[in-house]
C-alpha cells in the first residue's frame, strides 16, 4: 500500500544529536563466525577441545577444531579485530597442530586488553555424523574455561542437514557461532587477561 502523502518523514540524525544518541547506547557489540573443515582419514576429530570417537577427523593446519575456530571469529568480529586467519596464519609453522583452545585463550587476552568482556557465545555444530549431543557439556566446559566465563555463558548445539549437501554427505563439519561483548573499563590491569 502506498504511504499517505501527508506522512511525516523520519527524523534525520544530524551531527549535533548523534553524540547524545551514542552516549545512551550500551557499549555492546555482536559478532558472527562460520567455519568448515573437511573430514579425512587418519585424523582425530576434535570439537571444543573434546576428542570425539569417529572413523575420520577434520583436516587442518592446527588441530582443526572447527568449533573453536568459529567461536574465535565471532569474538574477533565483535571486537572489530582481524579474523582468525590474520591472527593465526595457516602457513605459520608455530600453529602446526596447535591446540585451538589455547588460541581461544589468546583471543581472550586480546579482548581483555581492549576491555571487552564476553556476555555470551552461542554456536551450532552442523555434522551428519557422529552424534555429538553426549559430548556437548564437555565442549561447553572447555570453551568457558578458555574464555574465563561460566559454562552457562557458552551455548553449543548440534544438528544435521538431513543428508543434504556436502556436510550431509559426511564430507565435512561446519559451525555457526555468535558472540556478544560488552565494553568494560574495569578490565584495565585485570589479572584475568592472562591466557590459560
Ligand atoms: Zn578452521
Write a compact overview of the structure shown:
Helix content is 29%, strand content 24%.
Give an overview in words.
A hairpin with a 2-residue loop joins strand 2 (45-47) and strand 3 (50-52). This protein is 29% helix and 24% strand. Helix 2 (66-79) packs parallel to helix 4 (100-113) and helix 4 runs parallel beside helix 5. It is globular. It starts with 16 loop residues before the first helix and ends in a 13-residue tail after the last strand. It is of the alpha+beta class. Residues 191-196 have low confidence and may be disordered. The protein is built from 6 helices and 7 strands. The protein has a 5-stranded mixed beta sheet. The chain has a two-stranded antiparallel ribbon with strand order 2-3. It has one domain (29-193): 2-Layer Sandwich (60s Ribosomal Protein L30, Chain: A), CATH 3.30.1330.50. The chain binds zinc ion. Residues 35, 37, 60, 66, 69 line the site of zinc ion.
Amino acid at each position: 500500500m502506498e504511504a499517505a502523502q501527508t506522512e511525516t518523514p523520519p527524523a534525520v540524525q544530524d551531527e549535533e544529536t548523534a553524540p547524545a544518541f551514542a552516549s545512551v547506547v550500551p557499549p555492546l557489540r555482536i559478532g558472527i563466525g562460520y567455519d568448515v573443515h573437511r573430514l579425512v582419514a587418519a585424523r582425530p576429530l576434535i570439537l571444543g577441545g573434546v576428542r570425539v570417537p569417529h572413523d575420520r577427523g577434520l583436516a587442518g593446519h592446527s588441530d582443526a577444531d572447527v568449533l573453536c575456530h568459529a567461536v574465535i571469529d565471532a569474538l574477533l568480529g565483535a571486537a572489530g579485530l582481524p579474523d582468525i586467519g590474520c591472527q593465526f596464519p595457516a602457513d605459520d609453522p608455530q600453529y602446526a597442530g596447535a591446540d585451538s583452545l589455547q588460541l581461544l585463550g589468546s583471543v581472550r587476552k586480546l579482548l581483555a586488553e581492549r576491555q571487552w568482556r564476553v556476555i555470551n557465545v552461542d554456536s551450532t555444530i552442523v555434522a551428519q555424523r557422529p552424534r555429538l549431543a553426549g559430548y556437548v557439556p564437555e565442549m561447553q566446559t572447555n570453551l568457558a574455561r578458555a574464555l574465563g566465563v561460566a559454562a552457562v555463558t557458552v551455548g553449543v548445539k548440534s544438528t544435521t542437514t538431513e543428508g543434504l549437501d556436502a556436510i550431509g554427505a559426511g564430507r565435512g563439519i561446519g559451525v555457526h557461532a555468535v558472540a556478544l561483548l560488552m565494553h568494560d573499563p574495569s578490565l584495565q590491569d585485570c589479572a584475568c587477561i592472562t591466557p590459560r
